[in-house]
Amino acid sequence: MGALVTLPSHFEEPVDRPYRRAEMAEDTVIKSRSRIAAYVALTKPRIIELLLVTTVPTMVVAERGMPSLWLILVTLVGGTLAAGGANAVNMYIDRDIDRLMKRTRRRPLVTGEIAPRNALVFALGLEVAAFVELWLLVNPLSALLAMSATLFYVFVYTIWLKRTSSSNIVIGGAAGAVPVLVGWAAVTGSLGLAPLVLFAIIFYWTPPHFWALAIRYREDYAAADVPMLPVVTSFAATARRIVIYTVVLWAVSLLFWPVGGMGHLYLASAIVLGGIFTWHATQLARHGTPERAMRLFGWSITYVTLLFSAMAIDQLLPR
To answer: How does residue 35 score in pLDDT terms, banded at 50, 70 and 90?
Structure first.
């Protein structure tokens, strides 16, 4: 890859103390974790939590009320297995570059806690279990959607785009938006315009969410020769792209109000939460520091959690 664009000097500052303490604590956890915990770590449970946060509210909106607890449970189990398997395959493929990045060098395949072959068998087993469980206990459409997300994440994002294109997370991030389609299909057995708008919300949320993290770990991605946007372009260009995607996200979240037949609680929440997200994005553009980037990253998680929670509450409240 060609010469890298240099970011402003404040991006060369050393990692601050809270991050050092977090790394030391993580080292201690890794030394003491069991084999079971190492396999759980392969599935990237924190990412799965975020995916599931969007699935249940989507099911509530599709049902126009609370779906059966059994349907929620089996859908979440299938989604967890599918996402966990995809994440484990991702770790298997990326184990070479994970060794080069401080953020990922404690993963089980890098530390040697799990052999690569065992990790791959584990991942494929999760995918088979997910497909069978969703097909038999939910419906075939949900199973096919979950499998399509895995295939897209592995072959399009991990194998093709991640190491070759600065648009990797824009296109590849579509896999992370599929769980809302799975949740909708689990309830209705079909798709339509409303779930596609929900898909668009997650699709446009993913780039600013991930680019903020990539700004913080720019040196990691540069060391691994991964062309994340903050590595291959200037900070100003990255921040400008973050603001654009955030504004589009705000607009799409408002579009869901009429398309999804939502109430005033959702509309007010989408206005306020989108406004705060945009404020964080513009602040990052004005004051480009790793700390600002991590504030945006943290808010992006809060944003999607609150937006989808408001979505569910809106449908559960009496009209």
So the answer is: confident
Tell me the C-alpha distance between 304 and 277, whole Å: 10
The ranges assigned to domains in the chain are 40-164, 192-319
- Do the Cβ atoms of 212 and 284 come closer than 8 Å? yes
CATH 2.40.50 fits 192-319, yes or no: no
CATH class, domain 40-164, is mainly alpha
What pLDDT is recorded for position 7? Answer: 35
Is residue 173 a contact partner of residue 228, using CB atoms and an 8 Å limit?
A: no
The answer to whether 208 and 296 are in contact (CB under 8 A) is yes
Residue spans of alpha helices (H) in the chain: 17-32, 35-42, 45-63, 69-93, 95-98, 108-111, 116-137, 140-151, 168-172, 178-188, 193-216, 218-223, 229-232, 235-259, 264-286, 290-316
d(CA 81, CA 126): 5
Rounded to an integer, the average pLDDT of 194-202 is 97
Closest CA to 241 of 271, 270, 209: 209
Q: How far apart are CA 98 and CA 92, in angstroms?
A: 10
- Kindly state the tokens that stand for 9: 């000097």
